[in-house]
Amino acid sequence: MASNISNSVLNWYVDAEDMLQDVLRYVPYCLEHKRVWSPKLVTILHEVCSQLDSLWFYEAKKSRFVKEEKLNIRNYFEYYGEYVAPKWVVFWGQEPERIQPFKSWDNPPATSYKKEQWKKVFTPKWWEAYQNVKHNRLANENMATLECTVYAVAGLFLAIIRSEDCRDGIAQLGWLSCNGTTNGNPQAWLSEDSPATKRKAIAVESRLFGYAVGWSKETIKRKSIWTGCASHRFQQWFNQYESAGEDERT
């Protein structure tokens, strides 16, 4: 079952990235184009968020503690919010850009991620766009902007990295890099359950996104050097980036 889930999620994700990359060939991701929308972006946004919903629903229902028949974004906030909220990725648009898909969930004004705290945080804008498109596609298609779609694909990318069922598939796709210190099993470090994870310098890289395992709550200093394996573009970005004046968008 897990293998089928992994194959389904990863195959669709790769297709979604391909579709988004096709759009980016004609509409580069830059400030002037982030509010651009198109019917193709509607399709990508809808399908990516639907896949994210399905993946999180599948994972939640594996737990004997989840009794609800129907789950929604409030449930996912409670189950996955603490993990995904601080996560960021590098998006390879016209220029590399650090984005945080679930930033609106980060540091809620409470000590725990519970459904009761939902009113104190904000739904990600890209998820709101998805809900509007899902319920009335014709009336709300202009909400499927390039920016919302990029953030949605990044959100699914992070959910896939988190998923234990997807880890072997991630390795098979060639998304993982390591510096030889993970005993030939870098996917075992994707759980990020140890402060030592970031010292292993593992990068997860798809065609459009890069993720530095273990660095979501770390400061990248001006003189930080990526010591592991990664693509040239990832190493160059990391070595030149400094955590200051972070993007506040959601």
Descriptive account of the structure:
By secondary structure, the protein is of the alpha+beta class. It has one domain. The chain has a 5-stranded antiparallel beta sheet, with helices on one face. The protein starts with a helix and ends in a 10-residue tail after the last helix. 43% of the residues lie in helices and 7% in strands.
Task: Please name the defining characteristics of this protein.
single chain; 250 residues; alpha+beta; five-stranded antiparallel β-sheet; 5 strands; globular
Domains counted in the coordinates: how many? 1
The average pLDDT score comes to 88
Count of β-strands: 5
Distance between the termini: 34 Å
